[in-house]
Amino acid sequence: MAVKEIRKLGDPVLREKCKEVSRIDFSIRRLVKDLADTMYAAPGLGLAAPQIGVVQRVLVADVGEGLIVMINPRLLKAEGTVVEEEGCLSLYEIKCPVPRAQSILVQAYDLQGRQFQLPAEGLLARVIQHEADHLDGILFIDRASPADRRRVLMAINEMEMARQSGEGL
């Protein structure tokens, strides 16, 4: 099991636009294993490569139906809008309402290099959109209302100050 450290808000890698994967080789297979191990250990519903410090367009997700691996995902279609609470392993335990498409169609490659399309709705659609945003350096708070964004950032600052003063130990 290869659980990696999850990068937190403030780490510059979370704001980088990830590079396309040009070849699916051992390093990409290893990256997918590290992502899955880290996601399950956290526990989370999804994880993108920059969250463990790798600037490549790879994400994993599992909303209870088995592991989904997406290499170079591309959103082809998005329909409807729904606003629901969302959180992120890179932003501690803090959540806020975020608008996302209700249903999507995404195209990606699997670990065998086969291109596929996946229609998704509800929670799976939300998780894929959230993780795909990470590949473009976008965090869920960037999509939240200005008031919710301020509230989340203030809460994170308070948590960091408590941790640094020893209260969070």
TrEMBL record:
SUPFAM superfamilies per the UniProt record, alphabetical: Peptide deformylase (SSF56420)
Pfam hit, one: Pep_deformylase
UniProt-listed Enzyme Commission number(s) = 3.5.1.88
Q: Where are the active-site residues found?
A: E131
Kindly list the residue ranges recorded as spanning the membrane. none
Biological processes per GO annotation:
translation
Q: Extract the GO molecular function terms from the UniProt entry.
A: metal ion binding; peptide deformylase activity
- Give the required cofactors: Fe(2+)
* Reactions catalysed according to its record: N-terminal N-formyl-L-methionyl-[peptide] + H2O = N-terminal L-methionyl-[peptide] + formate
Is Protein biosynthesis there in the keyword field? yes
Co-factor binding details: Binds 1 Fe(2+) ion.
Query: For Fe cation, which residues are the binding ones?
Result: C88, H130, H134
Keywords noted in UniProt: Hydrolase, Iron, Metal-binding, Protein biosynthesis
InterPro entries per record: Peptide_deformylase, Peptide_deformylase_sf
Q: Which PANTHER family match?
A: PEPTIDE DEFORMYLASE
Instruction: Give the family, as the similarity comment puts it.
Output: Belongs to the polypeptide deformylase family.
Report the protein's function.
Removes the formyl group from the N-terminal Met of newly synthesized proteins. Requires at least a dipeptide for an efficient rate of reaction. N-terminal L-methionine is a prerequisite for activity but the enzyme has broad specificity at other positions.
* The name this protein goes by in its record: Peptide deformylase
